[in-house]
């Protein structure tokens, strides 16, 4: 039994020490009031020091994107620090490129505000808000993806199609404190009073498990946003879009927004990859949009169609289908742009196909949900 008890004892001691260190730090290291100067003094915050830059800004209603909720595991909460806060920490380095380190880009969740600090952040972040929403509907759109619609209870959100929000997950049996996860909005920008997201169940996932097993209609939930820079360009280039699973979300928002605004002169090819028929969502809606919009083409492909399913669409890996269409059906005489939403592996594979078909990297845009 000693081999079982020892790790438990070590874990308990480590937890106690960590708590003690945190308490001592708050008592002994009283940093007093500090100033955070944002964008060369455009906004100056005065607050008590000692917390992370991420949480210090959040306490003043300025929200830096953080897909992991400030746990230092996503690398999303980057900002430029223009004053001296010391060398980059080992917890930051894995998420930063050399160019970013040279420009003193830091992870705001890892920087503790101990003295006055100067930072630069995108102006768009001044428009990010925290919303106290209420769940008004939860629908199963596939066996493992839920469509969740939140009512903003009198408030409005202004965003460009393709943006995301952070869902604040409260404590439950998997976590003691709150955490946050990022989800692309599938709702249309003109529906300002609601936010719709698509959440796929990830085995063992903290946020997705809570959504799929604990979230119910009528529950009040906090959302923070909008964030992101994934959006359609303002050119007339042919859009070649690729997604799978819950990667449908930003494209659903973008496509309906384009159709409602009359941007139907632009050619759009939307490739959606799935394993079986039970993994395809919004098939009817996409086919109806295809029928109404002459220059919109929806191509779904199944890699493992079930025998007897009646599937008559494309089969095979979505990258192979994409490659075939780029070579044989999509006009090569006109400029083309790539739009991808999915895992890093999917994006990398599609990147290779697009660039091999003469779509340059700087014309390929991503919504990466690693």
Task: Describe what you observe in this structure.
This protein has eight helices and 17 strands. It folds into three domains: 31-124, Beta-grasp domain (Ubiquitin-like (UB roll)); 128-227, Translation factors (Elongation Factor Tu (Ef-tu), domain 3); 238-368, Nucleotide-binding domain of ferredoxin-NADP reductase (FNR) module (Rossmann fold, 3-Layer(aba) Sandwich). The protein has helices spanning 2-28, 53-58, 98-102, 206-213, 248-260, 283-292, 318-328, 344-356; strands at 33-38, 43-48, 78-81, 105-107, 117-120, 129-140, 145-151, 164-169, 179-184, 194-200, 220-227, 238-244, 268-274, 296-302, 314-315, 336-342, 364-368. Helix 7 (318-328) packs parallel to helix 8. By secondary structure, it is of the alpha/beta class.
Short description, anyone?
This protein has 370 residues and is α/β, with parallel strands linked by helices.
């Amino acid at each position: 039994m000693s081999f079982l008890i020892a790790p438990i004892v070590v874990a308990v001691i480590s937890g106690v020490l960590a708590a003690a260190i945190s308490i001592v730090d708050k008592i002994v290291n009283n940093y007093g009031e500090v100033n955070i100067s944002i964008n060369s003094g455009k906004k100056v915050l005065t607050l008590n020091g000692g917390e992370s830059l991420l949480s210090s800004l959040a306490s003043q209603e300025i929200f830096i994107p953080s897909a992991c909720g400030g746990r230092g595991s996503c690398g999303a909460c980057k900002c430029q620090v223009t004053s001296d806060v010391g060398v980059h920490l080992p917890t930051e380095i894995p998420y930063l490129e050399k160019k970013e380190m040279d420009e003193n880009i830091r992870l705001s969740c890892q920087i503790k505000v101990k003295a006055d600090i100067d930072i630069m952040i995108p102006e768009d972040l001044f428009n990010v808000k925290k919303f106290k929403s209420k769940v008004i509907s939860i629908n199963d759109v596939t066996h493992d993806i839920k469509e969740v619609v939140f009512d903003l209870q009198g408030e409005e959100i202004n965003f460009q199609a393709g943006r995301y929000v952070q869902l604040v997950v409260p404590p439950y049996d998997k976590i003691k404190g709150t955490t946050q996860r990022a989800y692309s909005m599938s709702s249309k920008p003109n529906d300002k009073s609601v936010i719709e997201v698509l959440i796929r169940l990830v085995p063992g996932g903290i946020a997705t498990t809570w959504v799929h097993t604990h979230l119910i209609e009528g529950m009040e939930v906090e959302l923070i946003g909008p964030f992101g820079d994934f959006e359609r360009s303002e050119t007339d280039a042919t859009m070649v879009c690729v997604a799978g699973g819950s990667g449908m979300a930003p494209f659903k928002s973008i496509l309906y927004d384009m159709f409602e605004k009359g941007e139907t002169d632009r050619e759009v090819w939307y490739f959606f990859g799935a394993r079986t028929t039970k993994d395809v969502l919004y098939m009817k809606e996409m086919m109806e949009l295809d029928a109404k919009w002459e220059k919109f083409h929806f191509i779904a492909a199944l890699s493992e169609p079930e025998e007897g399913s009646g599937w008559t669409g494309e089969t095979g890996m979505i990258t192979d289908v994409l490659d075939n269409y780029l070579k044989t059906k999509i006009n090569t005489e006109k400029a083309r742009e790539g739009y991808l939403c999915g895992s890093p592996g999917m994006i990398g594979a599609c990147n290779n196909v697009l660039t091999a078909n003469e779509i340059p990297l700087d014309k390929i845009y991503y919504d990466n949900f690693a």
